[in-house]
Amino acid sequence: MSVGNTVEILSALVGFDTTSRNSNLALIGWVESYLDRFGIGHQRVFDATGAKANLWATIGPTAVPGYILSGHTDVVPVDGQKWSHDPFALAERGGRLYGRGSADMKGFLACCLAAVPDMVARPLAHPIHLAFSYDEEVGCIGVRGLIAELARAGVKPAGCFVGEPTEMNVVIGHKAKRSLRVTVQGRTCHSSLAPMGVNAVEFAARLIVKIREISERLAQSGARDPLYDVPFTTAHTGTVQGGTALNIVPDRCTFEFEFRSIAADDLDALAAEVKAYAHDVLEPQMRAVAPEAGFIFELKSGFPGLEVTPQADTVRLAKRLAGREQHGKVAYGTEAGLFDGAGIPTVVIGPGSIDQAHKADEFIAVAELEKCGRFLDQLVAHCRAA
Ligand SMILES: [Zn+2]
Predict the structure, then answer these.
(1) What's the gap in Å between 191 CA and the centre of ligand 1?
(2) Which residues on adjacent β-strands are paired with residue 384?
(3) Taking ligand 1, which is a single-atom ion, which protein residues have CB atoms under 5 Å away?
(4) 11: Cβ–Cβ under 8 A, 6 or more apart, which residues?
(5) How many Å apart are CA 180 and CA 299, to the nearest integer?
(6) Cα(176) to centroid of ligand 1, in Å?
(7) What's the rounded Cα separation, in Å, for the pair 219 and 206?
(8) What is the pLDDT of residues 302-330, one digit of tens each?
């Protein structure tokens, strides 16, 4: 496959500002008319508002299991980032293609679409499915509807390749994530009468320290998975809001924290440990002063981890197609855990580097697109012969 077509397609895709807060339908429409040129059927799976959609397309026979090429169409915001050019106009410089989403992950989508003429050139024995999702960057939201739709329709592919940027390394695992929003309800009063109130900021701080203690325990003596850069489960508090003035005891504080766990740890148990400390240790102290005081926990987002055995057929196939013997795991989350959890053996493998994702002047090397193109050539050959 010639990389020229890939670059042309990537240029079109980057031109759509599909920041997660926006509709992705213009991009989906563009992809649909591209597929129409090759007579490929496709289907939208909308969100509740109708402003966003997943796209599902099948090339080849529908009655036999095939392989999913999965990627998200949304990108992270460019707000507050210093770009040296328009982030939504692809720019080529020194073998690199700059633009928002070039690495994460419109580069992969472009490679898949550029491979379509080859896919349709001669009949496939096993189908290749395109699964392009929305709202991945805000918690792997969109693809859940698509996976549910596949289950309803009884589509059971043999495997799935999620093309997040791995520099075409075969990734067989990623961490699970759970994030929670905590609202601390206290009782306000003049700060000179502090003991008559319940200081929501201070009780939030005590719970945040508890979360920190859990993360230190996991770091020092928790389970280990050496395939990760950070080989243990982590916890972290990311935002805190509370208080209005120094002379007022604050009656409200909110904060958000997360766990990112390796397969050996149980997110339910870790979240339960935090909640138990809040409800059993802190709340009785708060309620001795103010019966209405306490903690409210809300699930903010989360996704399951990916944990595939190196012996799995999809892993072996990915290695053969990519010409690699090694495999690894990545700390960042992807849609792969959701596909795999739905019984579709899944590997993460895609062009570009996660180091360039989400940053100003995001880019993908042309050489990465070429590597991915060769992988897809091999996949098409495999599906033709299989
Ligand atoms: Zn991504």
Answers:
(1) 47
(2) none
(3) 104-105, 164
(4) 90, 99
(5) 5
(6) 15
(7) 20
(8) 999 999 999 999 999 999 999 999 999 99
Whole-number Cα distances in Å, 149 to 55, 59, 61, 165: 11, 18, 19, 26
Helices (H), 194-332: 200-221, 267-276, 283-287, 313-322
Distance from the alpha carbon of residue 230 to the mean position of ligand 1, in angstroms = 20
> With the CA atoms of 132, 134, 135 and 141 taken in that order, what torsion angle do they form, in degrees rounded to the nearest 10?
-70
Average pLDDT score over residue span 364-371 = 98
Compute, in angstroms, the gap from residue 353 CA to the centroid of ligand 1: 11
Cis-peptide, bond into residue 105, ω within 30° of zero: yes
How many other C-beta atoms lie within 10 A of the C-beta of residue 220? 8
Q: How far is the CA of 103 from the centre of ligand 1 (A)?
A: 8
Predicted confidence band of residue 95 (pLDDT cuts 50, 70, 90): very high
Question: 72 CA distance to ligand 1 centroid (A)?
Answer: 7
CA of 333 to the centre of ligand 1 (A): 8
CA of 76 to the centre of ligand 1 (A): 9
Q: What is the pLDDT of residues 134-186, one digit of tens each?
A: 999 998 999 999 999 999 999 999 999 999 999 999 999 999 999 999 999 99
The answer to whether the CB of 133 falls within 8 A of the CB of 312 is no
Q: What's the 334 CA to ligand 1 centre distance in angstroms? A: 7
Interval between CA 29 and ligand 1 midpoint (Å)? 21
How far away, in angstroms, is 85 Cα from ligand 1 center? Answer: 22
* pLDDT tens for each residue of 239-249: 999 999 999 99
How many angstroms separate the alpha carbon of residue 241 from the centre of ligand 1?
A: 29
Contact by Cβ (8 Å): 344, 146: no
Tracing tokens 């992950």 back to the chain, one arrives at 105
